[in-house]
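User: My advisor asked me to double-check a structure prediction for N-acyl-phosphatidylethanolamine-hydrolyzing phospholipase D before group meeting. I don't want to rely on an old file, so could you generate it fresh from this sequence?
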Amino acid sequence: MTPILREIIKYVILTHHYANMNHCFTFSFVVLMLLLILDALVFKSFTMRDIKKWSPLVRAGRFQIPWKLEASLPGIFAFIRWKLGSKHVRCFCDAEHNLETIIPEFNNESRFEGLHATWLGHASLLVKMKGGVFLTDPVLNEHHSWFGIKRIMPISFSISDLPKINAVLISHNHYDHLDSATVGALNERFGDSLTWFVPMGLREWFLQSQCKNVHQLTWWEEMQFKTEEEEESFTIVCLPAQHWSWRSPLDKNKSLWCSWAIIGRNRRFFFAGDTGYCSSFQDIGNAFGPFDLAAIPIGCYEPRWFMKFQHVDPAEAVQIHLDVKARQSLGIHWGTFQMGAYEHPTEPPCKLRQVLSSRNLGNDSFLTLPQGGKAEIYPCNECARVFRAEFEKERHILSCHTGVHIWTGMRPIYPTILRSNYRFIFECELKNRILPEFFAEIEKAIDEHVLAGKIIAKNILKYIDVFNRAVTALYGNLKKYESGEFELNWRNIVEEFKKYYHSLNLVKFEQLFEVLYRVWFWIHFSNQASKFSSCEDRQRTSCQVCLEDTPSCVCQEFRSKIIEANNFLYNGTFIALDFRIPELSLLCLRIAQGMVRDKIVIVVRRLEEYEFRGLQNIFSYLRKVVFGWLYVVMGRKAEDPFEADLDLCAFLLRCEGNLQMATFEIYGRILISMVFRLIETFPTSYQIWMDLRYCMQRTGQSLDGDFINEVKKFVKLRILAQNTTTTRILILYIKLYRALHIVFIPDSLATGIFHNIQAFLKSRCNLLSRTIELFRRPRLMKYLGQDLCFSPETFPDECTSELENKFKYPVESLMDRPGIFPATGKNFITARMLIDVSGSQQEFFNEYRKILSTKLIKKFSRACPFEYHILKSIDSSANSDHLYQCQMMIRDVLNSKRFETSYSEKMIRDDVKLMPVHCIIASANSWPEFAKESLVLPDSIGEYFSKIAEYFKQWKRSRILHLLPNLGSVHLHLGMNGRQMLYIVEPCCACIILQFTNKIEISIAELCEKLKAPYKEIERSLNFWLQAGVLGSKKNASWYLRPSSNWVAQACIGRRPCEEIGIEDELTTSEEDAEDSVNEYILSLEEYWPTIRGWFQRFDSLTPDRAYLMLKILVRQKEMLTVDIVKRYFQMKLEQVMNDQKSDTEIALLCSINLTVGILVIIINTIPFSILLVMKKFNSEISLVF
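Assistant: Sure, here is a fresh prediction for N-acyl-phosphatidylethanolamine-hydrolyzing phospholipase D from the sequence you gave:
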């Protein structure tokens, strides 16, 4: 919500508060609602367009700031000039200040509903919010680095004194913000229960420090974090900052720097880290503000010509405080270490107070604390500041209160002379506390919660209309009652509205109307009672209306009216009249109406995010924003002299339960109604339609007979884009069974309907196949679909034209042809579709990176053109950050090929015999994490890799390669007595079979000792060779080599053969690559040889044409199978038999081959492995794959 609109709404509400309701209500209410709608449609979109979410630049592996800089990072000459300068010996005000340290109390704190932060020195803060404890930039030692910069303010506690910490936030890798000793001590104490959030590039450092739960994020990236004990959910957001990173001479800016935001259910905290001033803080405030507390650096700022780029001074810190819209800020990064700045260590707080005074801000809006001091942040700090000034003479201090019990403890501490001026008290609270709280709740509910599509449908809109009409009618009735022209009659009012809303549930309607009636009745009489609020100050019994101490004040006549009305309306139930209730109730109802309307707009815009969890969000929103506030307002009975008997809590819970049940029914019906649209689109669905209609008619008595027709009519008005429809069908298909259960259908009926729909969908419009045909990307979708665990099923060819005719737009217009035309925004359709199917953008690209990693390791540089082509097909502006990592993986493979050429030439010059080994160098930030297991390779391979490591050290200085031998694949030619068999296996399988060249029997224990591999890995590899018929096992747990006649002649046992998959007429491949693809496909037919051999024995003759028709039923890649490939495969088998010198009969039949036991020959053709590169000297890691 825009600040200007916020102030206008405050003015309207306050004006209504003071004015006579007869003149002001209609105008203020209409203006308020118009402003809320205007903000949702205009101001909101304008504000979001103004937010510029910068992403860090990455050049040559180093991060750079993307925006235009007012000052640059100082160079070596500026550094020397800075070191030669002189420092200030005292504060600029010439006063003596002391650095104060107190001992913090961590574990003696009761459960806290607000937010508080304990400053532990420098940038270390212990932040406690409801349900979570966080630590920022922990440096809890006397020295912050190995080269010995010591604290000037000693630490007053130990790490063992800290309470249970849920997460740690790291802003960057400078030694005064990241201390390895502190990290090790925290990890030792809390272990795996501690979660670390670090900027991009620092994860490997923490993994080496034995930290397990480490998450690295880049700017504007969010992550949900849930604490285990409290089960509270927080959103952790990585945000921009202007700084740099350095931990060793060679790793400058190789990791990112950032600020952080912690967004809880009720509170928001911002940690600026270490930063210079930039415009991104305004974007942070617009996107995530206002913050309840912000931690902003204020020290190490002199001289400005040297420090301006990297550190803010107090004036710029105050500007950040305003930019991020912090209600209160805390100064950090001062007075702990002697950082080399010119200002005196005690100067920053003094200068900060001067800046606050010059900008007319109170000192309590931006605090500085002693080390170990605690800042407790409540919602009413500004209110407290005003009251402290008013109550200075009588030394009364306003007791701040939590957000749960709003008015607790307020009245007893007001000075007697101000008790009659309760309008001033309420105005201050309304302006400085209540409105900001409400607006924060509004913005949070609108921006963070995604409601399930259309769950606020026609019935709920009717309730909103009832609210508006009831407010107007009740106001008019109350004014008539006051003048004696009208007698209050509750039943008449209810019957009047029932005429227009006969379909509403009567019980719910009366309950909601009762709430409105109470609120407006109180508002009317409280305004009248305010005229009599000025009474003399003497000892009396307190009146609930005017706060005067009189047993017979002038408010008694209004009290008698309240008692009379309550007796008439609620059968003797008395409700206390409190001046604070009406304004808050009015505000709650008005804002709730605006929120519901804004929610409807958001629901329409976010139909793609139609998720079941949206139901839980809407309940949380209603409970917190509507029911919660009403309960606080109406449920205060501690000071009620009438001791009301109404169980308000039970009443609100009953309303909430009824609304929840109705919403679940709406959710289920909407799911089924969208299935109606799907089924209506295709023929032969009349029986299913009748079944669903029967199902819907049995969902409840409240369902009108014309409901199905209304649903059909509504759905026809909504025309969705092709990709949205396809994704919606897939999601509905998955969730249909749940929806049928939600609307209370018997299990047997729901199961039968579900199976009918499932059979219909599979036979007539398979979901993924439909997508494939629409986008004319069969091989692309098959390529991604198989690896992403989809299950595409083909459907009859005659359905293809029928499906395409159902869409208005031509299929060719949906996406440009990548490889021929440059990628455009239309590629977003395919990308959005795949991401929706996977669940989220992050989940899709995480899974795709694993797929890409496997394919690149298998095929090396041969796969790069095609994989790059796939990336271009799903490229869009929304995916740029994720796609960058995939592009870096492909670039690594190409760079690896250049390195391979370089070291091969070097080895030839050094007379080193080359081996057929190919390597991949992988960037740790882009490639997924590799599984690391120990394995001893053959000596020749190990020596060869050691030579490669030496060459790499010369090629890239100060880096050492370590072999991870468990990754990659090995091509094995096993030969016995002249016969050779081809296998593609993992390195562990190859090393195991190599052990049988010298021994007949080997036990698992011996293999584990020789290969240094885990027992489970050895056992899995042995079972692989057992299934292949190469090895056998004995009862004494020993393994032996079986005769070659038992071997299964199959290439790539236990794996899917490597495939060269292209896109039809869109990817230009070389003749060599095409021939390799055909040869691999021919080898893959080896798995069908037992079946083909049976055909030869069963039939008198088997021509290639007949074999082609029979094989097409069996093989997976039907599009590659041709008669020519079948002929070439038969020719290959014939040559194998001729080489084995078999009889003519066997040659003619191509039957089974009898082989005699001979000498085992193993040839290792290609071994791609994984290598970890470590810069030992400076303790920095980069993962590589060879």
